Amino acid sequence: MVNSYRPTTLPEALKLMETRDMIPFAGGTDLMVKYQSWKGTLPRFPKDVLFLNHIPSLKKIEVNGETLAIGAGATLSDVIDYPRTPDILREAVLSIAAPGIRNIATLAGNICNASPAGDSICALYALDASVILSKSGGERELPLPEFITGPGKTSLGRGELLTEVRIPLKEANLQVFRKVGTRKANALSKLSFSAVAEIKGGTIDGIALAFGAVGPTVVRSKELEKKLTGKTLEEIKVLYKDIIDDYSAMIVPIDDQRSTAVYRKQVALNLLKNFLESGLLKEMQ
Amino acid sequence: MAKISFILNGEEVSVEADPLKRLLDVLREDFEALGVKEGCGEGECGACSVILDGKLVNSCMVPLGAAEGADIVTPEGLRETEKGKVIVESFADTGAVQCGFCTPGMMMAAEALLEKNNNPDESEIREALSGNLCRCTGYDLIVKGVKVSAERGKDLW
């Protein structure tokens, strides 16, 4: 018999996490599908369930200094509605499911589900997001790429809860999110692409490029981004073929029920080319 | 099992059930709210849509325990309101209903949209209905039904 708990404060929730092995349940829109059973019967959760949606402090979204802090109970709709959400994250979140799901599902849940096709995750990589993992008596902050270790796998430790997502609010006058799916609403990504850049005086002051659903985790290379930083329009034109080749070597997708490796790779590179040729160059001219 | 209370169509109610039981099943079995339909059971079709604390949600995705204390409106509650009557009549007059299975969910999505935006354009209507599948109409007449609801109910929303 599986039990469930409905704590109303975070310390209470962390205490429960310390004493039992439980499934944290925020929005639950992935969990309810994963553990669904025959119609009209109870979902089959393998462990006790800890409901997190009765904890008001987790629902907060706020800006502290130059950091956006999104509580683990904030829904995708809350993230869309918050005025200081970075454009690219708003775009990515709007591409997830449909309004009825976005009103329940949480950003933290999208991260913890750690699907290679998680749309918010691709944008959060490009935004240099980190996560706060709390347990009774302490917390730690991990950069998102260190938290997500593989498809469906994270470095969440025993007794820990992901309580907050942090995003540094940096200047970025160019933000692009593209998702390729079978249909516009309620489709899982075949692949996705995120670009965040700050263009100053005709040169690239900072840039981040991330590709989703083309590998076990999001593909991003700080090394290649360093090569692009400080470059002018003319220099990017000269480097163009190298950039495409470098990324081509990194993007190694697989075939699955949603798409093929060949299609994913081709479209990922096309989105990169499109970004370099129209997005970036237009902004720099 | 636990005793869990919430507000259903304006009335305080409580039910003795497993907190993991889907709200969809609680509404249909324990409260005979049969306007809440089960289509896919996995959040894709919107047939089980209800309004929870003012927001459209798929009730197949919400366990009872997560809905404790919530204010829930089902199609049974909506159709008794002035706004609900406008939506029902507008859907009927525009031919937005064929087999009818998706209709209660579509009406909940329409109500959720009009509460936020009482003069939506076509793309806003299509976005608001994007989580509700209809296999009969091809959607055009449902979009029209929402548009007519907005016009007829402009003093209500």
Description:
The complex is a heterodimer of chains A (285) and B (157). Chain A has helices spanning 10-19, 31-34, 76-81, 87-94, 99-102, 107-113, 119-126, 144-147, 222-228, 233-250, 261-284; strands at residues 4-5, 22-25, 48-51, 61-64, 67-71, 130-135, 138-143, 148-150, 153-154, 161-168, 174-180, 191-200, 203-212. Chain A has 285 residues and is α+β, with helices and mostly antiparallel strands. Chain A folds into 2 domains: 4-168, Uridine Diphospho-n-acetylenolpyruvylglucosamine Reductase, domain 3 (2-Layer Sandwich), CATH 3.30.465; 174-284, Enolase-like, domain 1 (2-Layer Sandwich). In chain A, the strands form 4 sheets. Chain A has a 5-stranded antiparallel beta sheet. Chain A is globular. The relative contact order of chain A is 0.11. Chain B has 2 domains: 2-75, Ubiquitin-like (UB roll); 79-152, Orthogonal Bundle (DNA polymerase, domain 1). In chain B, strands 2-1-5-3-4 form a 5-stranded mixed beta sheet, with helices on both faces. In chain B, a hairpin with a 2-residue loop joins strand 1 and strand 2 (11-17). The model of chain B has no long low-confidence stretch (mean pLDDT 98). The chains are: A alpha+beta (285), B alpha+beta (157). Chains A and B meet through helix 5 of A and strand 4 of B.
